[in-house]
Amino acid sequence: MTPATRAAPTQAPALRTHQLGKRYGRTWGLRDCTLAVPAGAVVGLVGPNGAGKSTLLQLVIGLLDPTEGHVQVFGQTSRAHRAVTLGRVSYVAQDHPLYRDFSVADMFHLGRAMNPAWDQRLADQRMASLGIPLKRKVKALSGGQQAQVALAMALAKRAPLLVLDEPVASLDPVARLEFMGGLMAAVADRELTAIISSHVVTELERVCDWVIVLSGGAVRAAGPVDDLIAAHRLLTGPRTAPHDGVPGVIHRADSHRHSTLVVRIGPGDPAMHPAWQAQPVGFEQLVLAYLQGHSAPLPGQDPHVERPVVPVPGTVAR
Amino acid sequence: MTWVTWRQHRGQAAVSLAVLAGLAVTLLLVSAPMRQAFSQDGIARCLAADPQAGSCQNTIGTFLSTWGFTYNQALVALLIIPGLIGVIIGAPLLGRELEQGTWRMAWSQTVPRTRWLITKLALVTAGLVALGVGMTLVFTWYRTPMDQLTGHFTYAAFDFEGLSLTASLLCAFAFAVLAGLIARRTIAAMVAAFIPWLAIRGLADFVLRQRYQPPLTEHLPASTHVLFGPNTTSMTGHLGDWVLSATQTPAYVSVTYQPASRFWDFQLIEAGMYLTLATAALATAVWLLRRRAA
Asked: Which of B67, B157, B177, B252 could make an SS bond with B219 (beta carbons 3.0 to 4.6 A apart)?
């Protein structure tokens, strides 16, 4: 894993949200979302379908206005439909939509016409290196090539924050690898901050150094991946063992004889109950624990009052 | 944005030009023998002298029976043409973007979506005005001989000449743009826009038009032959007057009519109605697009 922050610590966070909420009619698509993502982070946004991922992304890129709270991108508040907001963020939408009867060159012409900071050379070079002819119509391209065209458009827009909504969900495994490889190289080259949403946790584990776990419209955990892993343990013990005395239980899974707990260990962690054996926790296991833990409220924790939101960077004990 | 709009609509522009050219050629071919007959029969001379004279009545009657229905009243079948063109071009403008998901790409570029929509609407509307005016000129030229005999108040004339055609075309377009935004589907939006457009067109043609201004009433001699509608030999004695009703009494015939001279007033009123509806629909679309939860 790369360090969570590559940029100077004085720089404003790439993304800061404060008690952000979006209501659709009577239901909240996202509520009480407070985050600070440092510049240079590659963020995995994880959650089941309907968790609020797209809502959060659309609030960030300026396609939606929040019902409450606010979003800041590099210190400036995002407002929907404003050119300044739209220009700061590049967006690759789910299924990377393009005009099917346009050629690749036409799509780039559109990008140039609609974005003042457009980098034509960057777009053309990416196509040349991938062997995608500029004259070819979008509908004649494979899904992987279409995704690459969409990514090239997002990069050529030259915005400091790159947002990708389920970028590889519709791609075959080889195209997935190629796409993520190209994405990572571009992010590293240009020192971009990237937010990648996915419901496939393993897809993100390889590329992300930051993670936001979202479910039911609320943030369940957020922080640098390394810090989160360091701050949690996987406990195993006999099924009969009580976990009342164990602090910070995120999720409990019971098998025939054994139980496993994912727990958060605080600073100055007390000794565990002797019945439990502690192990380091894996990325996927941790994310799943937060996603599943949400469905069964933990004792003493009213999910509407106190959510197990994991602290912002710097406050996590190692 | 001009280029983007052109790139997205150039296919429609080419098809529209082809339709206009096809229409012009067809009407030119049909019109040639009609114009020849018009001059050979000496109808212009007849009209200049006394159209009510017996011999002239026969000449004009023959001309109308030969060319009137087939080549002019048949135009009534084309009354829905402006509506069809309008919805075919209007419905995909937002409907297809929403249907195919390309709005997420289009609206996340630096140009805000409101400006994107307003630019597209302005340019496409300009194109439609050009198309409407072109069609109007072609139809008006085609109908010149007939208009001299029947005036402009027949459905086949009023709806194709002046401002009505272009204005009703824009109205259908605007309805379809709004329907596309609400229905989020192209075909559904075409249907949803065409039905109200057709209802308004029917209402305008068959109910409202005769009431745009209060009709005139005149008392004619009891011997006057009662004849309704806009006709060559209108019972009022003025070519092109639109007779709405006539009441026979022993002493006289009371006739209610719209005089032919009101043609342009009525065109302005009808175009104003269509354009008001079009503006309202487009303004609603822009407003909805702004506040719609993406």
From this structure: B252
Contact B101 A95 (CB under 8 A): yes
From chain B, the residues in CB contact with A91 under 8 A are 104, 108
Q: Could you please report the per-residue DSSP string of A190-207?
A: HT-EEEEEES-HHHHHTT
CB contact under 8 A, B109 and A114: yes
Q: Rounded to an integer, what distance in angstroms lies between the CA atom of residue A298 and that of residue A109?
A: 54
C-alpha to C-alpha distances, A52 to A39, A105, B242, nearest whole angstrom: 23, 34, 64
Backbone angles phi, psi at A106, to 5 degrees: -65, -40
- Which pLDDT band holds residue B17 (cuts at 50, 70, 90)? very high
| Helix ranges, chain B (H) | 2-40, 43-49, 54-63, 69-71, 81-100, 103-106, 113-150, 155-158, 164-183, 186-203, 263-291
Q: pLDDT value at position B83?
A: 95
Q: Which two tokens stand for residue B250?
A: 């022993």
Q: What is the mean pLDDT of each run of 10 residues along chain A (318 residues)?
A: 46 88 89 91 89 89 88 87 88 93 96 94 94 95 94 94 90 89 88 88 85 88 88 81 71 81 72 74 86 54 40 38
Q: Choose the closest CB to A86 out of B7, B103, B109.
A: B109
A227 SS3 class: helix
Nearest CA in chain A to B108: A86
In this prediction the ipTM stands at 0.85
Contacts of B98 in chain A (CB under 8 A): none
pLDDT digits (tens, 9 = 90+) for A275-312: 778 888 888 888 888 888 754 444 333 334 334 444 44
A25 phi and psi angles, rounded to 5 deg:
60, -115
User: Residues in chain B whose beta carbon is closer than 8 A to a beta carbon of chain A?
Assistant: 1-4, 7-8, 11, 100-105, 107-114, 116, 290, 293-294
Choices 3.40.50.150, 3.40.50.300, 3.10.180.10, 3.40.50.720: CATH for A15-225:
3.40.50.300
**Rounded distance between C-alpha atoms, residue A313 and residue A316, angstroms:** 6
* Comma-separated ranges of CATH 3.40.50.300 domains in chain A: 15-225
CB of A24 closer than 8 Å to CB of A9: no
Task: Say if residue A124 is exposed, middle or buried (CB neighbours under 10 Å; 0-12, 13-18, 19+).
Answer: middle
Residue range A213-266, pLDDT digits in tens: 988 888 888 999 888 888 888 888 877 666 666 777 888 887 878 888 888 887
pTM of the model: 0.86
Phi, psi of B211 (to 5 degrees): -115, 5
Tallying the residues shown for chain A, one arrives at 318
Q: Do B3 and A81 touch (CB under 8 A)?
A: no
In tens, the pLDDT along B18-75 reads 999 999 998 888 888 888 888 887 777 777 776 666 677 777 778 888 877 666 666 7
**Where does chain A have alpha helices with state H?**
53-61, 83-88, 104-114, 120-130, 143-156, 173-190, 201-205, 225-230, 283-295
**Of residues A241, A238, A245, A287, the one with CA closest to residue A262:** A287
What whole-number distance in Å separates Cα of residue B123 and Cα of residue A301? 58
- Chosen for mutation from B99, B105, B116 (greatest number of chain A CBs closer than 10 Å) is B105
